[in-house]
Amino acid sequence: MPKRDPAFDDYVIKIHQFLPRLDYYRLLGVGHEAEVEEIRHAFLKITKKFHPDRHRDAPGKLHDAIYDIFKRLNEAYRVLSDPDKRKLYDQQLVTGKTRFSTDLRMSMIPKTPEQTIHSKDARVFYLKAVECLDAGNILQAELHAKMAATREKDNDAIRKLIADIIEAKKKR
Q1: Can you tell me whether residue 125 is helix, strand or coil?
Q2: What is the per-residue pLDDT for 96?
Q3: Do residues 66 and 30 both lie within one domain?
């Protein structure tokens, strides 16, 4: 196993100490006017250095610091690469807050029902069921919705769709 670089380890400790005060732009090393592609490039470059898998041999507190930095880098990338989140973050940054606040994180909640479906197969069946229901083909909609439900049992969007289909059947 390669020997640890003491200079990098000292750098990690310093970054970790200042992490609460670093805004996402400074953390990623990009300007406020940076385009998404520049942010992506900076993110990929810096996460190579801080990826926890590269530092499995780091002692406990150092490994924890690397992991904290890596998580914050991911958070920064998710916010700055999304135009809506970035706009909210920039407004918040003016007030001195360096992290995307809990209230603003609520905007990370998926906007459409199908975005809450994690399984690709379930999402495909869900969308097909919606399409069939809109076309008035209730039996096909029910079939597709049931297929979606078998792939993702506890999804509220799928449950609601099934309830809508049952309601449509009653109205027939």
Answers
A1: helix
A2: 85
A3: yes
**Residue 145 corresponds to which tokens in the numbers above?**
């919705």
Quick check: is 1 in a domain? Answer: no
Q: Residue 102: helix, strand or coil by DSSP?
A: helix
Any domain includes 27: yes
Mean of the per-residue pLDDT values for the chain? 89
What is the widest separation between alpha-carbon atoms in the chain?
A: 73
What is the rounded average pLDDT of the residues 73-90? 91
- At 135-145, the pLDDT tens digits run 999 999 999 99
Tokens encoding 60: 């406990």
Say whether pLDDT at 112 is over 80: no
pTM exceeding the 0.85 threshold for the entire prediction: no
C-alpha 69/C-alpha 83 separation (Å) is: 23
d(CA 39, CA 54): 22
Q: What is the DSSP letter of 112?
A: S
**Residues near 99 by beta carbon (within 8 Å), at least 6 away in sequence:** 20, 75
Structural domain of residue 83, as residue ranges?
6-108
Q: Please report the pLDDT score of residue 108 as a whole number.
A: 52
Residue whose tokens read 């700055």? 80
Amino acid occupying residue 77: Y
Number of helices and strands (H, E) in the chain?
Answer: 9, 0
Do 26 and 78 meet the contact criterion of CB atoms below 8 Å apart?
Answer: no
